[in-house]
Design goal:
Strand content: 5-15%
Number of helices: 9
C-alpha cells in the first residue's frame, strides 16, 4: 500500500472525503466515457447527473470516504501515480483560506480571526469550521476553497479551528449589480453602533484601516469590486462596536477615489456593504 493511499484511508476513516492528485497538484483527468462531462456528472456535483464511473473522475467530485472505493482496482492506477492527497473541504465541513505568499499571510493576520494553520510550500492554509462558496483570487495571493473545490492535504496543522465569520465570508461577496443610489454623504454616524468591542488594542483598528487602504491602492484590476469587498471586510470586523468613525470611512473613500472611483460609487459601495451586513 502506498503512503498516499494510507494517508487517504486514515482521513476517510475520520470522515474527510479524499482523492489522489497527480503531478502539478491536479486531479486525474476524466476517463474516455466521462470526458467533457459527457456522462452527465456525478450526483454530488452542482448539476446532478447519473455517472456511476468507478474511477476517480470529475475532480473534486470524486472525493470519497468509502474504503472499498479508495482501495478498489479502479483507483489503484491513480494511487500508484499519485503525487499527493487532496480533500474536499466542503465535504469535510470546513473552509480553507489559501494564502500563497508572505504578503497574503501578513494581511490575514491583520484582517481575519486566528484559526488552525497548516504550512504549505509557499504560504499557509487557514482552516475555518463551516462551508461557503469557493472563489479564486479574492485578493492578491488569496483563494477560498470550500464547496465544489479541493485542497491539498498537508497535515492537520496547529491551533484550534474556529467558526467562519463575516470577515471570511465577505471575501467572496460581490457588490450587487444594481447599486441603490443614495446621497454622497453617510446617512448616520458609525459611532451609533454600540455592540461589545472585540479589539485587543487600539492599534488593531488602525492597522486594519491601513491594510484596507493598502489593499485598495494595490489593486491593478477589478478596482470597483476590490473597493466593495474591502468596505465589506472592514465593516464586518469593525462596524458594530462604535470604534469605526466617519474619519476612518473618509480615509477609505480617499484611497478609492485615488484609484479612479467616483464619490458616488464610494458612497453606494459603502451603503451596500452596510445593508449586506445588516448595519
Amino acid at each position: 500500500m502506498s503512503t498516499h493511499l494510507r494517508i487517504a484511508l486514515d482521513l476517510a476513516a475520520a470522515g474527510v472525503p479524499v482523492l489522489p492528485l497527480r503531478a502539478g497538484k491536479l486531479p486525474f483527468g476524466n476517463c474516455p466515457t466521462c470526458a467533457r462531462n459527457a456522462c452527465g456528472g456525478r450526483p454530488n456535483m452542482k448539476t446532478p447527473g447519473s455517472c456511476g464511473c468507478p474511477r476517480p473522475c470529475h475532480g473534486w467530485a470524486a472525493a470519497a470516504t468509502t474504503p472499498c472505493v479508495l482501495n478498489s482496482d479502479a483507483w489503484a492506477a491513480a494511487w500508484r501515480r499519485a503525487a499527493a492527497v487532496a480533500y474536499h473541504p466542503g465535504g469535510a465541513g470546513v473552509t480553507v483560506v489559501d494564502l500563497d505568499d508572505p504578503a497574503a499571510i501578513a494581511w490575514a493576520r491583520e484582517s481575519l480571526p486566528a484559526t488552525r494553520t497548516v504550512t504549505t510550500t509557499r504560504g499557509e492554509h487557514w482552516i475555518y469550521r463551516g462551508t461557503m462558496q469557493s472563489a479564486n483570487a479574492v485578493r492578491p495571493g488569496v483563494d477560498v476553497k470550500s464547496l465544489m473545490q479541493y485542497a491539498r492535504w498537508l497535515g492537520s496543522g496547529e491551533g484550534a479551528t474556529v467558526a467562519l465569520t463575516d470577515a471570511v465570508r465577505a471575501l467572496v461577496v460581490k457588490e450587487p449589480p444594481t447599486a441603490r443610489r443614495v446621497p454622497q454623504t453617510l446617512s448616520a454616524p458609525l459611532s451609533a453602533q454600540r455592540d461589545a468591542c472585540p479589539h485587543r488594542t487600539p492599534t488593531y483598528l488602525e492597522r486594519g484601516i491601513a491594510m484596507a487602504e493598502q489593499r485598495i491602492t494595490a489593486a491593478r484590476s477589478a478596482v470597483h469590486a476590490t473597493v466593495y469587498r474591502t468596505f465589506l471586510a472592514v465593516l464586518s470586523t469593525h462596524g458594530r462596536c462604535g470604534c469605526l468613525t466617519d474619519a476612518h470611512a473618509a480615509r477609505l473613500f480617499t484611497a478609492a477615489q485615488a484609484k479612479g472611483e467616483s464619490p458616488r460609487h464610494c458612497t453606494d459601495a459603502w451603503t451596500n456593504a452596510l445593508t449586506t451586513l445588516g448595519l
